[in-house]
């Protein structure tokens, strides 16, 4: 569909500065961008991974602009991240799906607490059991996307160390109605919490603690003493 609009299937472009996906499409395929702005559904893949229009491109990458395949929502991403999280995805979802009949974007953003049990937290370290962790995260996002009225599902879960205030989990669900978006978000959060193998080590001013179950904390020194 989009190759018909652009007038070609494959093209190459040399760039001498950082461009966003939006800027690149406007440059090489303005008719495609016009269609997107009018509300035509799309998926943008950069080296095989779905990205928002404001994503900054590397110099050597492959970009594909595709219509959603038939058979339900295909606007899905679920991945672990390390470092800063780009929140431009949220604006992109509202711009993309508002004209298509979406009624709500439900978002959960979790971040590291700075104080726990009246003690200052230094950092929280997330350990993921891979590759099962990534597989399970993608599976749950896919299941959520198949619920009636769901148009898009995106999950970003932290791995590695995070400081107080750092984002640890982003879950975004676009739905045809407020109820669909909120209910699916709540369902997905509970499934992620209980089924994705992510383990948290909390480093505080009074020591290190493994966080298990529904917030129960076990001193790391106690665990180590059992193995000695």
Give me a quick take on this structure:
With 228 residues, this protein is of the alpha+beta class. The protein has 7 helices and 13 strands. The protein folds into 2 domains: 1-67, Ubiquitin-like (UB roll) (Roll), CATH 3.10.20; 73-227, Alpha-Beta Complex (Aldehyde Oxidoreductase, domain 3), CATH 3.90.1170.40.
What does this structure look like?
It comes from Ignisphaera aggregans. The chain is of the alpha+beta class and 228 residues long. It has 2 domains: 1-67, Roll (Ubiquitin-like (UB roll)), CATH 3.10.20.30; 73-227, Aldehyde Oxidoreductase, domain 3, CATH 3.90.1170.40. The protein has 7 helices and 13 strands. Strands 6, 7, 9, 11, 12 and 13 form a 6-stranded antiparallel β-sheet that branches. The chain has a 4-stranded mixed β-sheet with strand order 4-8-10-5, with helices on both faces. Helix 2 packs across helix 3 (30-37) and helix 5 (132-145) runs antiparallel to helix 6. The radius of gyration is 20 Å and the shape is globular.
What keyword list fits this structure?
228 residues, alpha+beta, Ubiquitin-like (UB roll), Aldehyde Oxidoreductase, domain 3, 2 domains, six-stranded antiparallel beta sheet, four-stranded mixed beta sheet, 7 helices, MoaD family protein, MoaE_sf, Mopterin_biosynth_MoaE
Please describe the topology of this protein.
Blueprint (H helix, E strand, L loop, with lengths): L1 H5 L14 H8 L1 H8 L5 E4 L2 E2 L12 E4 L8 E7 L6 H10 L6 E8 L3 E2 L2 E10 L3 H14 L4 E9 L1 E3 L4 E9 L2 H18 L2 E7 L2 E6 L3 E4 H8 L1
Parallel strand pairs: 4-8
Antiparallel strand pairs: 1-2, 1-3, 5-10, 6-7, 7-9, 7-11, 8-10, 11-12, 12-13
Helix pairs in contact: 2-3, 5-6
């Amino acid at each position: 569909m989009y190759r018909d609009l652009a007038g070609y299937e494959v093209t190459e472009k040399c760039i001498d500065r950082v461009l966003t996906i939006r800027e690149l499409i406007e440059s090489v395929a303005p008719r495609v961008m016009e269609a997107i702005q009018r509300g035509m559904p799309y998926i943008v893949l950069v080296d095989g991974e779905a990205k928002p229009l404001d994503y900054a491109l590397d110099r050597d990458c492959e970009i594909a602009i595709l219509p959603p395949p038939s058979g339900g929502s295909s606007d899905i991403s679920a991945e672990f991240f390390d470092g800063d999280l780009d929140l431009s995805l949220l604006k992109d979802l509202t711009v993309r799906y508002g004209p298509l009949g979406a009624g709500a974007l439900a978002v959960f953003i979790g971040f590291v607490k700075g104080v726990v049990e009246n003690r200052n937290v230094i950092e929280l370290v997330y350990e993921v059991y891979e590759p099962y962790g990534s597989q399970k995260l993608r599976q749950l996002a896919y299941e959520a996307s198949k619920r009636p009225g769901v148009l898009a599902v995106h999950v970003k879960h932290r791995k590695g160390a995070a400081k107080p205030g750092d984002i640890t989990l982003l879950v975004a669900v676009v739905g045809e109605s407020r109820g669909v978006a909120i209910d699916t978000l709540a369902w997905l959060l509970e499934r992620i919490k209980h089924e994705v193998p992510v383990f948290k080590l909390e480093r505080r001013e009074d020591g290190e603690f493994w966080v298990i179950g529904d917030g129960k904390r076990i001193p790391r020194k106690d665990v180590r003493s059992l193995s000695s």
